[in-house]
Prior knowledge:
The protein is of the alpha/beta class. The chain has a single domain (5-237), classed as Alpha-Beta Barrel (TIM Barrel). The chain contains 11 helices and 8 strands. It has helices spanning 14-21, 36-39, 44-54, 68-79, 94-110, 130-137, 143-156, 169-175, 203-208, 218-221, 226-237, and strands spanning 5-8, 31-35, 57-64, 85-89, 118-122, 161-163, 181-184, 213-216. Helix 4 (68-79) packs parallel to helix 5. The mean pLDDT is 92. The active site is at residues 61, 63, 66. Pathway: Pyrimidine metabolism; UMP biosynthesis via de novo pathway; UMP from orotate: step 2/2.
Amino acid sequence: MTKPVFIALDFETVIAAKQFLTVFQQTTKPAVKVGMELFYAEGGYAFVRELKVAGFTVFLDLKMYDIPSTVQKAAVNVGKLGVDYVTVHAAGGARMLAGAVAGLRMGAQAAGHTTIPKALAITQLTSFSEEEMHTTQLVGVSLRESVVHLAKLAYQAGVAGTISSAYESDDIHAATAAEFLSITPGIRFAGDAVGDQSRVVTPARAAAMGANGIVVGRSITQAVDAVVAYTRALNELNGEDA
């Protein structure tokens, strides 16, 4: 099974995102990630629906985090959109995570969708360094231990996988199950600027570290040829010749 490359549509407006995606009109539709910035923009909700109608795999990155009942009700509405993946914060706890899974199922079924969105749990943000995590959260364990603990919590709550650095992918699989997904942001091509990420790897390195899929933003969206860059990321992740 081909591991997906999710293109992070980190644009300020829906118009800009649509303009970028025009280069993929004559190709197989890639998987895309719609984050909070774009979803909360004018027309963001309708844009997600348009993406699904157009044949894109959609990862809606909302990082839901609230009391269990509120997250479940929000997840019902998200489930009705027919998206493929949705993020929730593992730090919200087992009841909140289970509520999100239940809400997504309820929403998808109510809307008549044949597939249920997969919930992906945020462990620790890839922008966090070890020192930042300790200082901000007063967490006494290592960054790796915290990520694995949160991944186990998510797995036990019925979540499909995690969002975490590729540096923790193998440990997450070892602590959960082979089918439990490890989707990793913080991806750059060799030689690209790191930006605001602290734990960065290439697509090929992410694959070697156990990632089941990757999220790539600037290395594709700011490339001279986005289609070529996307194909390169897909090939590197799946071990294929360019």
